[in-house]
């Protein structure tokens, strides 16, 4: 199957939002502020060279939003449409994002995966991402519209 990988732009927002809503696990990771058009536009302005879309015949079928703070990289959203899984798209998105982070001087990257998302956890392990068991992920919402999480 042929597809291309290109940078994400804010013009992709509607397609991204539709893609994220194509799976329960991705839908559950969304919040109304950070994943709004304005939130994604802010993210892309800060990380213009590290976010990528997989596109087939004009349709976004996969996406990875990756950024960094100058020290560590983080994968915030990665999703491939269910109809296009197990075709190597996710792995290619990850390697493209990792290479972009290396070009910006980043040497370590992490991502967050729901504990009960077994397919995603297996995927990330296959990509060389180890499970950290010596850390607690702490969360605080600074906006009442964003749930604090479980």
Quickly name the level 1 CATH class: Alpha Beta
* Count of discrete alpha- or pi-helical segments spanning 4 or more residues: 5
CATH fold call:
Aminopeptidase
User: Helices and strands, in N-to-C order?
Assistant: EHHHEEEHEH
Our measurement of the CA-to-CA distance between the termini, rounded to an integer number of angstroms, reads: 39 Å
Q: Over all CA atoms, what is the radius of gyration?
A: 15 Å
The gist of it:
With 150 residues, the protein is of the alpha+beta class.
Question: Would you give an account of this structure?
Answer:
The chain is α+β, with helices and mostly antiparallel strands and 150 residues long. It has one domain (4-126): Gcn5-related N-acetyltransferase (GNAT) (Aminopeptidase), CATH 3.40.630.30. Helices cover 32% and strands 21% of the residues. The chain contains five helices and five strands; from the N terminus they run βαααβββαβα. The protein has helices at 13-20, 24-29, 37-46, 89-103, 118-126, and strands at 4-7, 51-56, 59-68, 73-80, 109-111. Strands 1-2-3-4-5 form a five-stranded mixed β-sheet, sandwiched between helices. β3 (59-68) and β4 (73-80) form a beta hairpin. The radius of gyration is 15 Å and the shape is globular. It starts with a strand and ends in a 24-residue tail after the last helix. The model has no long low-confidence stretch (mean pLDDT 93).
């Amino acid at each position: 199957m042929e597809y291309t990988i290109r940078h994400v732009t804010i013009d992709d927002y509607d397609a991204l939002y539709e893609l994220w809503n194509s799976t329960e696990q991705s839908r559950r990771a969304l919040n109304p502020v950070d994943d709004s058009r304005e939130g994604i536009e802010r993210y892309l302005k800060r990380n213009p060279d590290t976010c990528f879309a997989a596109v087939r015949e004009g349709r976004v079928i996969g996406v990875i939003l990756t950024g960094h703070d100058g020290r560590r990289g983080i994968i915030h959203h990665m999703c491939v449409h269910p109809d296009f899984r197990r075709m190597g798209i996710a792995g290619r998105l990850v390697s493209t994002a990792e290479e972009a982070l290396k070009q910006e001087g980043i040497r370590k990257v992490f991502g967050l995966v729901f504990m009960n998302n077994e397919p995603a956890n297996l995927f990330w392990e296959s990509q060389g991402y180890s499970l950290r068991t010596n850390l607690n992920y702490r969360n605080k919402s600074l906006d009442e519209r964003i749930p604090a999480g479980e």
